[in-house]
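Request:
Um, any thoughts?
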Amino acid sequence: MPDPMTYDLLAEAPSVSDYRRLREVTDLSTKTQEAAERGLKGTLHAAIVRFEGRTVAMGRVIGDGGCHYQVVDIAVEPEHQGRGLGKRIVAALMEWLHENAPNSAYVSLIADGDARHLYAQFGFEPVMPASIGMATWIGGRPAKGT
């Protein structure tokens, strides 16, 4: 198991290729090249983790820069999971939000499965039953991990 100190946490967005690869290997929905290129330009803040010069984890904050922010794309390569990398990324994103988002800003995310336990450590809580997350996909629902 690699020493946690050999992982480098950087405040930058992933490359388009790393973004698409990390989404695929972590079973997040796939994104087209065009969608990734356009979407990454809308990043307000991001963090990546590199191991031996290779991006192995990522996370981003998107939003309008004032009222609404969303934490998205938290992904850690399977062989690097269980080493606290997701927690380091979320901590870095939350630090940026606390330093840059104005009071009253609404910060949301979608927690898949047990990831809710990670996000709860940073103050996130379910909004049900007052609110329920809803979604639609342009062009149909994308496949996961393909």
In short: The chain has one domain: 4-120. The longest helix spans residues 85-100.
